[in-house]
Specification:
This protein is α/β, with parallel strands linked by helices. It contains 14 helices and 11 strands. It has helices at residues 2-11, 16-23, 27-39, 55-65, 80-98, 112-120, 142-158, 175-182, 185-191, 211-216, 222-230, 262-266, 281-288, 300-308, and strands at 69-73, 104-107, 131-134, 162-164, 199-203, 205-206, 233-237, 240-243, 248-249, 270-274, 295-299. Helix 1 crosses helix 3, helix 4 packs across helix 14 (300-308) and helix 5 (80-98) packs across helix 6. The longest helix has 19 residues, at 80-98.
C-alpha cells in the first residue's frame, strides 16, 4: 500500500486528496504513508547536478574551512583574466538572485574581479538596495581612479541605491595624514556607515599587489610589504592583512589604511569574497581561516588546490 501511494504521488503526480479519495483512506494516512516511504527508502531522492557544477568539491571546501557557503565556477583555463571573468559573471548572477530589499552594500574599490561582477549585473527594475558604500579609499592615480569610482556608482545605479564614495586615498602617507583626512565631513559620513553594512563584497589580494591596485598608487612599498610578510602576512582583504592561519596581522602600516577593518567586516551579516588564481591560493586559504567570509566564489582550479593541502 505504501509503495502504491508513493507511485501515485511521485510518479503519477496525483494530489494527496485525490489519492485518499481513490483508495478510500484519509488524507492524513496518505501523508503518513508518504513519510514512511522515505523512511523505508521506498522513495529515494537523487539530485543530478548539471554539467559544469561542482557540488562535491563545494562540499569539501565548506567542510575543510568550516565555510557557510561556496560557489565554484567552471573555467577552461587556469589563467587570471579568464578566472576573473567567470567569477565576475557568477557573482553578478548570485547578487541579482539574493539581494534583499533595503540592503546596505559595502564594496571594496580596487578589485578587478568585483569590477567584472559589476560589468555583468543587469539593471534591477525595482530598486532594492538602500545604499552602496565604498569601504576602501578610492582616490589614487586619475587614470585608474575612474574605475574605482565607477565601480561604486555603477553598482549603486544598477541596484537602485544611493552611492557613498570614500573620497580619500586607500593608503595615507602617514598616520598623521590619515587623521587629517578623517576630519573631512564627507569621509567621516561614509565611514560611519561601515557599521551598518549588511552585505560586504570583497576581493582577496596576494602579497604582490594586483595590476589595478599597483597602478592606483594605493600600495605599500616593497620594503613595507616585506615587513608585513615578516610578520606572517600572506594576503589581504581591503588592504587589511592576515596570516596563513587566518589571524589578523597588524603593523604600524595598518594605521595608514583608510577603510573598513577586518574586525568591522567580521560583524557584517554577509561577506562575499571573489577570488581565484594560482598566485592567490595561499592568500585565499588564509582569508577563509579568518572566519570573516560567508561565501567564497572561486574557480575549480583554485578550489582543487585549496582542498589538496
Amino acid at each position: 500500500m505504501i509503495a502504491r501511494v508513493a507511485q501515485m504521488y511521485h510518479v503519477e503526480g496525483q494530489r494527496q486528496a485525490d489519492i485518499a479519495g481513490h483508495l478510500r483512506i484519509s488524507q492524513a494516512t496518505v501523508s503518513r504513508m508518504l513519510k514512511r516511504a522515505q523512511e523505508e527508502e521506498i522513495v529515494r531522492t537523487t539530485v543530478v547536478s548539471p554539467s559544469g557544477t561542482y557540488t562535491e568539491l563545494e562540499a569539501e571546501l565548506r567542510a575543510t574551512f568550516d565555510l557557510p557557503e561556496a560557489i565554484i565556477v567552471e573555467c577552461t583555463e587556469d589563467r587570471d583574466s579568464a578566472i576573473m571573468a567567470r567569477i565576475g559573471e557568477a557573482a553578478a548572477h548570485f547578487l541579482e538572485a539574493t539581494l534583499q530589499s533595503g540592503e546596505i552594500i559595502g564594496v571594496s574599490s580596487w578589485s578587478e574581479t568585483i569590477l567584472r561582477m559589476v560589468d555583468n549585473i543587469h539593471p534591477m527594475k525595482n530598486g532594492k538596495a538602500r545604499c552602496v558604500v565604498q569601504t576602501l579609499g578610492g582616490m589614487g592615480d586619475p587614470t585608474v581612479q575612474i574605475h574605482a569610482n565607477q565601480l561604486t556608482t555603477r553598482l549603486a545605479k544598477l541596484t537602485g541605491a544611493e552611492a557613498h564614495l570614500l573620497s580619500a586615498p586607500g593608503v595615507a602617507q602617514s598616520r598623521e595624514a590619515k587623521l587629517v583626512l578623517l576630519g573631512d565631513t564627507y569621509v567621516r559620513e561614509t565611514m560611519d556607515l561601515f557599521g551598518k553594512v549588511t552585505l560586504s563584497i570583497v576581493g582577496i589580494g596576494a602579497m604582490e599587489p594586483s595590476a589595478m591596485l599597483a597602478r592606483s598608487g594605493n600600495v605599500f612599498s616593497s620594503r613595507e610589504l616585506a615587513d608585513i610578510a615578516e610578520a606572517g602576512g600572506v594576503g589581504d582583504m581591503s588592504l587589511r592583512f592576515f596570516d596563513e592561519n587566518g589571524r589578523f596581522v597588524k603593523t604600524p602600516l595598518d594605521d595608514r589604511v583608510i577603510g573598513m577593518t577586518l574586525e568591522e567586516m567580521s560583524h557584517v551579516d554577509r561577506v562575499i569574497a571573489l577570488a581565484g588564481g594560482q598566485s592567490k591560493t595561499a592568500a585565499i586559504r588564509g582569508a577563509l581561516r579568518t572566519g570573516v567570509i560567508d561565501l567564497l566564489i572561486t574557480d575549480r582550479f583554485t578550489a582543487e588546490r585549496l582542498v589538496s593541502t
